[in-house]
UniProtKB/TrEMBL annotation:
PANTHER family for the chain: BLL2707 PROTEIN, GLYOXALASE-LIKE DOMAIN-CONTAINING PROTEIN
UniProt KW Transferase keyword: yes
SUPFAM superfamilies: Glyoxalase/Bleomycin resistance protein/Dihydroxybiphenyl dioxygenase
Gene3D superfamilies for this protein: 2,3-Dihydroxybiphenyl 1,2-Dioxygenase, domain 1 (3.10.180.10)
A Pfam cross-reference name: Glyoxalase_3
Domain Glyoxalase-like per the UniProt entry, residue ranges: 3-175
Name of the featured protein: Glycosyltransferase
Keywords: Transferase
Keyword Mitochondrion included in the entry's annotation: no
Length: 212
C-alpha cells in the first residue's frame, strides 16, 4: 500500500487553463493525459518524484460521467469551483477492500496515441464522495512503464498534505495505519470546518516550497 497520486478537479475555465496555472506555479510542464471512457472524464498529468503524480481532471459531457461515481465526483467538485478532489492509494490486492465495502472494483483505462493502454482497477470513489478525506484505492495492471509518474522526468516532490479530518478515520477506512501509504509525505490534520477533505498540498520545487 503506497501513496499514488492526488487529484485536482478543474476550475470553471477548463482543463487546459487550470493545469497551466498549477504547472506554472510548480515550474514544470504538464503532460497530456487523455480520456477515461468508462468514467466520462479526461485528465492532464504532472509527474512528481517518488512514483507520485498530480492529475488535473475534467468531466466530459458524456453519458458515462452521469453513471460512474468518478465522473460524478469530478462534476460535483468542479461545479463547486474546482480544487482538490482527493488522493489515491495504490495496492497489490483490492480483495480486502471489495470484501469490506461489499462491492467489486471497477476497471479503468486510458489509451495513448500510439495505441498503448493504461489499465487499472479501482474502488472507493463512493466513499470519497461521502467523506472526501478518505482516499480511493487502485491496482495498476499492464505495463508498469506506463505509470503516469514516469511520463516525464521530474524534480518536483510531493512534500505534505493538509487534510481536514482525522488519522483515526483514515486508518479505519484503509484497514491499517494511514502512516504506511503516506510514508515520507507529511500530513497536517485539521478539524473540519464544513466538508472534510484535502485543504492544500505542498510541493518541493526548484524554487522552494509551493503550496496549492
Amino acid at each position: 500500500m503506497r501513496m499514488d497520486h492526488v487529484s485536482y478537479a478543474c476550475e470553471s475555465d477548463g482543463l487546459a487553463a487550470t493545469t497551466e496555472r498549477i504547472a506554472t506555479a510548480l515550474g514544470v510542464d504538464a503532460v497530456r493525459g487523455g480520456v477515461h471512457p468508462r468514467f466520462g472524464t479526461r485528465n492532464m498529468i504532472i509527474p512528481l518524484t517518488d512514483h507520485h503524480y498530480l492529475e488535473v481532471v475534467e468531466v466530459l459531457d458524456h453519458p458515462a460521467s452521469d453513471k460512474a461515481p468518478f465522473g460524478q465526483a469530478v462534476r460535483a467538485r468542479s461545479a463547486a469551483g474546482g480544487g482538490w478532489m482527493g488522493w489515491c492509494v495504490a495496492v497489490d490486492d483490492l480483495t480486502p477492500f471489495e470484501e469490506r465495502l461489499g462491492r467489486s472494483a471497477v476497471p479503468g483505462n486510458r489509451k495513448f496515441p500510439d495505441g498503448r493502454e493504461l489499465v487499472w482497477q479501482q474502488i472507493g470513489i463512493k466513499g470519497l464522495i461521502a467523506d472526501p478525506q478518505v482516499p480511493y484505492m487502485l491496482k495498476w495492471e499492464g505495463d508498469p512503464a506506463l505509470h503516469p509518474s514516469l511520463a516525464r522526468p521530474s524534480s518536483v516532490r510531493l512534500a505534505s498534505l493538509t487534510i481536514a479530518g482525522s488519522a483515526e478515520r483514515l486508518t479505519e477506512w484503509l484497514g491499517e495505519p494511514v502512516e504506511q501509504p503516506l510514508d515520507d509525505v507529511a500530513v497536517e490534520w485539521i478539524a473540519p470546518r464544513g466538508t472534510p477533505g484535502i485543504m492544500s498540498v505542498t510541493f518541493d520545487t526548484a524554487n522552494g516550497k509551493v503550496t496549492i
